[in-house]
């Protein structure tokens, strides 16, 4: 398994790491660090409400020379990283690449961000699902009157089975994603990583605005 995949599996934003390391390697600092044959060590401060336990992170970074040029393989880099016991450090994390794991991570995040009374509420979960489905419908150009007609049609029919309806929501999304030439799996993972990387205060403010508009519950975190 590649280091990037290990990072993704462990809730670490590998795409942000790409940007950091690419900018480092393009900078004159990379040459200077390599010439002195000693890694660059520094503390990077972080001040976020969702990481109250931590003040920052200690970073050690060293450019890897192609030896000879253009022949360093992914296997070589993976071997170097494995020598640092990186995989061992991450092995206890729940992999985000597994959808069952991802849904547990998302509900845990929602409970932590909005409070269990708000996040673990059936009506609230359904409201948020409908909101996202409507935003998707709007994004692809479906008219409001079509949504209203569909609502009237569905509520005129017998009530369905919750498990089956969840499956049908997933199947319908897969069909739409394939038609639009997108990966539902990848977009879901990207969005998971995006929200986990943001300050919870951002989402709490949005949730409270929805509550003020009468379309959601207030955040109930202390």
Structural notes for this entry:
This protein is mainly α and about 220 residues long. It has 12 helices and 2 strands; from the N terminus they run αααββααααααααα. It has 2 domains: about 90 residues, no CATH class; about 110 residues, no CATH class. The mean pLDDT is about 85. A two-stranded antiparallel sheet has the order 1-2.
**What kind of sheet is the major sheet?**
2 strands, antiparallel
Shape annotation: elongated
Number of helices: 12
Helix content: 55-70%
The poorly predicted ranges are none
Strand order of the largest sheet: 1-2
Q: What is the gyration radius calculated from CA atoms?
A: 22 Å
**Mean pLDDT, all residues:** 84
Distance between the termini: 40 Å
Structure summary, number of beta strands: 2
Q: What is the SS-derived class?
A: mainly alpha
User: How much of the residues is beta strand, in percent?
Assistant: 5-15%
Integer count of domains: 2
- SSE order, as H and E? HHHEEHHHHHHHHH
Keywords:
single chain; 222 residues; mainly alpha; 2 domains; two-stranded antiparallel ribbon; 12 helices; elongated
Summarize this, please?
By secondary structure, the protein is mainly alpha-helical.
What is the element layout, followed by pairings?
Layout: H1 3-9, H2 14-26, H3 28-36, E1 40-45, E2 56-61, H4 74-83, H5 86-90, H6 99-114, H7 116-119, H8 122-139, H9 144-155, H10 162-179, H11 184-197, H12 200-212
